[in-house]
Design a protein that fits this description.
The protein is 60% helix and 0% strand. The protein contains 13 helices and no strands.
Length: 219
C-alpha cells in the first residue's frame, strides 16, 4: 500500500473536521500559560484552571508573579501536579518579565534564538516551547506531540516511533507548505482526530480515514 502524503492527510482531516481555531486562549499570556498547564493533562482541566485565574483577575504578568504561591496553586489545582506546574509557570513568567518592555522581539527575532531561550527555562520542553511560539506568537514552527507519533505510525510512517522530536518536526516542515495557518490547523486536527478515533485503543470501524491507514487494514 502506497503511503498517503503528509499534505493529503492534512487535507483529509481538514475536510472532515474543518478549522479548529486553535489555540484556545485570549492573547499571548493566556496561551503561554495554557501551554504549560496542559502538560500531562486534559484541556478540560486546563480550561478550569484558566477560568479560575480569570475570575481571580490574575491573568496578568505582574499580578500573577506577585500573587501568593499557595493561592495560585489552589487555582491551578485542576491540572494536577500543581506544585511542579506552578514552578514552571513562574519560571516562564520571569522570563517574559525580562522582556515585557519589548514583546515585539517575539515576532521579529530569529526563531532559533527564541526557541533556544525557551528551552533553557526549567520545565519547558520542545513541545511546550513550540506551542508557545506557534500559537502565542504566530511563529513558523510545527508542533509535534505523542498524538503525531501515534497517528502517523498507524498511517504507515513507522519510523516516527524511533526518531527524535526534531527529526519529525523537520520532516513535517519539509513536506507541507511554510504557512503558519497550516501548521496551526494541522497540529490541532491531529489532536482532535486522535481524541475522537485514533485512541490508544482505536475506533477504526468509525474512522473516516481508515481507507488510507495501514493499521486499520491490519486489524
Amino acid at each position: 500500500m502506497k503511503l498517503p502524503s503528509v499534505l493529503s492527510i492534512y487535507k483529509a482531516l481538514y475536510e472532515i473536521y474543518g478549522s479548529q481555531n486553535w489555540w484556545p486562549g485570549d492573547g499571548w499570556l493566556e496561551i503561554s500559560l495554557g501551554a504549560v498547564l496542559t502538560q500531562n493533562t486534559s484541556w478540560t482541566n486546563v480550561a478550569r484552571a484558566i477560568d479560575n485565574l480569570k475570575k481571580s483577575e490574575l491573568l496578568d504578568l505582574l499580578k500573577l508573579l506577585n500573587a501568593k504561591p499557595d493561592y495560585v496553586k489552589l487555582l491551578i489545582k485542576p491540572v494536577g501536579f500543581f506544585n511542579v506546574k506552578y514552578k514552571r509557570l513562574i519560571n516562564l513568567l520571569e522570563y517574559f518579565k525580562l522582556h515585557e518592555s519589548n514583546m515585539n522581539r517575539f515576532s521579529v527575532l530569529p526563531l532559533t534564538r527564541l526557541r533556544g531561550e525557551l528551552l533553557e527555562i526549567n520545565g519547558i520542553g520542545p513541545e511546550t516551547a513550540d506551542s508557545i511560539l506557534l500559537y502565542a506568537f504566530n511563529r513558523l514552527i510545527f508542533v509535534v506531540d505523542a498524538y503525531t507519533r501515534r497517528l502517523f505510525n498507524r498511517l504507515g510512517y513507522s519510523w516516527m516511533g524511533e526518531v527524535s522530536y526534531k527529526e519529525i518536526q523537520n520532516f513535517f516542515m519539509w513536506e507541507i507548505p511554510s504557512d503558519v495557518n497550516i501548521y496551526n490547523e494541522y497540529h490541532a486536527l491531529i489532536v482532535v482526530h486522535c481524541k475522537n478515533f485514533c485512541k490508544k485503543k482505536p475506533l477504526c470501524s468509525d474512522c473516516r480515514i481508515s481507507s488510507i491507514c495501514t493499521f486499520s487494514i491490519q486489524t
